[in-house]
Structures are given as structure tokens and as C-alpha cells.
Write a structure and sequence with these properties.
Elements lengths: L8 E10 L9 E7 L19 E3 L1 H10 L8 E5 L9 H9 L4 E6 L8 H8 L5 E5 L9 H5 L5 E9 L2 E2 L14 E6 L8 H4 L1 H13 L4 E2 L3 H4 L4
Parallel strand pairs: 2-4, 4-5, 5-6, 6-7, 7-9, 9-10
Antiparallel strand pairs: 1-2, 1-3, 7-8
Bound molecules: iron/sulfur cluster.
Iron/sulfur cluster (SF4) binds next to loops.
């Protein structure tokens, strides 16, 4: 079979760094940022719709990561976006990477337009070393059972919080008894001030929420604190 004929992916960037957020903060990872996204969140700090990108086959990307990227592919890979699950080349990319690395982490907004029942069936057939971080970005959620179901491949949930409270997720209560860690992460409005100054009001808000929801945890963006990519 010609693997180059099985779809392409739109890539904004790839690089090695440490994971700055959530369950795996501090773990060295290879990051692959894909272009597609079904949303245009006003608080988006990556703005994939504005970003330039390259089109590659998954096979070419894997060879590029192995042979041309300084450091090669690390044992843990994070595929982020944008919304990676919209990219038609993703399943083949996962298949190729799954033989080479220990874990593949996929960050998704898992909105109803993305996590359809068809996709749900497909994901169940994906490799066992694939895990998901879900960061809900739409209020039309109503998917509390989604997280409690047999979704052992969801490693953590990341909820963005601004100085006025959680953004676009509906009810915080929906996540209380899920089967994975729940992180509250301050929204970064961007700008030239140090990261911790930019997010301090949101962090205060999170601290007040945590008094009511001790099941949840604060997640800061460690890579920004350390001025890493
Ligand atoms: S889902 Fe994520 S990448 Fe897409 S617009 Fe929203 S914040 Fe940005």
C-alpha cells in the first residue's frame, strides 16, 4: 500500500519542548500543531485560522521529525491545534507514531461537531498508547456522561477560566465525578507583561472556585513561566 496516498495533514509547526499544562506538566514532549479548527474562540492564544501552514503526508511528517528536527521524536508526542480530530490524515499519523513512541497525547475540544458517534467508534479502534486531553470550548455540552463512560483513554479535562469565571463550558458541576483529573487553567490574554502578571486575576478566581470544588486542580502554563516554547 502506498502510505503517501492516504491523505494529508495541515501542519502549523512542530518542535520539542516540555508539556506545560495539565496531567503531564513537566514531561518532555514532541509537539505537532495542526491547522484545522471548527471554532474561533475569542480567547484563543494560537489563532490557527491566521497561522501559515505546510501540507504534508503523515509519512513525510514522521520522517521529517525523525531525520530533520533537532533531537528527533521524543518518547511522548502531543498532537494539538487547532482541533486535531478534524484532520483527515490524523489516523494514519497516529498509526505511524504509535510504533515509534511511548504515548501520543491528543488535545481536543471534543465539541459535538467533532466528537460524533462515527468518530467515537473509530477512536475505540485506535492504538492503546493514545490518550486525550479534553478542553471543552462550547457551552452546548450536555455531555456529562461522556466523561463518566468507558473512556479510559481520556487522561484529563482542562477548563479555561477568566477573571469572571469559567469560559464556555456550561456548568462546573458537570465535571465533579468524572474518571480523570480536572484542571482549571487561567486564560492568557497575551501581551508584553510577564505571564504570571497577565493571568493573576484569573488565578485569584480559580483559587476561589477551588474552595468550592476541591476535586479540581489549578494548572498554570509552565512553559510560559519558563519562557519556553
Ligand atoms: S478550539 Fe482551541 S484552537 Fe480552536 S479556536 Fe478555540 S481555543 Fe483556539
Amino acid at each position: 500500500m502506498d502510505l503517501n496516498s492516504l491523505g494529508t495533514i495541515k501542519i502549523i509547526e512542530y518542535f520539542n519542548s516540555i508539556q506545560g499544562e495539565g496531567e503531564f506538566a513537566g514531561l518532555p514532549m514532541t509537539f505537532i500543531r495542526l491547522k484545522e479548527c471548527n471554532l474561533r474562540c475569542p480567547f484563543c492564544d494560537t489563532r490557527p485560522w491566521d497561522a501559515s501552514f505546510a501540507i504534508m503526508t503523515p509519512l513525510t511528517l514522521v520522517h521529517t521529525l525523525q531525520d530533520l528536527m533537532p533531537g528527533g521524536i521524543l518518547p511522548h508526542v502531543c498532537i494539538t491545534g487547532g482541533e486535531p480530530l478534524l484532520d483527515p490524515g490524523l489516523p494514519l499519523l497516529i498509526d505511524l507514531l504509535a510504533d515509534l513512541v511511548d504515548t501520543i497525547h491528543i488535545e481536543t475540544n471534543a465539541s459535538p461537531q467533532v466528537w460524533t458517534s462515527k468518530l467515537d467508534e473509530k477512536v475505540r479502534g485506535w492504538r492503546p498508547n493514545v490518550q486525550f486531553t479534553v478542553s471543552p470550548k462550547t457551552p452546548k455540552w450536555g455531555m456529562a456522561d461522556f466523561y463518566r463512560g468507558p473512556y479510559e483513554f481520556i487522561s484529563d479535562i482542562k477548563i479555561l477560566v477568566g477573571e469572571d469565571g469559567p469560559l464556555n463550558i456550561g456548568r462546573l458541576d458537570d465535571f465533579i465525578d468524572v474518571n480523570c483529573s480536572v484542571y482549571l487553567q487561567p486564560v492568557d490574554p497575551g501581551g508584553t507583561e510577564p505571564y504570571i502578571d497577565r493571568v493573576k486575576d484569573a488565578v485569584f478566581k480559580i483559587c476561589s472556585i477551588l474552595k468550592e470544588y476541591p476535586e479540581y486542580q489549578l494548572s498554570l502554563q509552565l512553559h510560559k513561566l519558563l519562557n519556553l516554547r
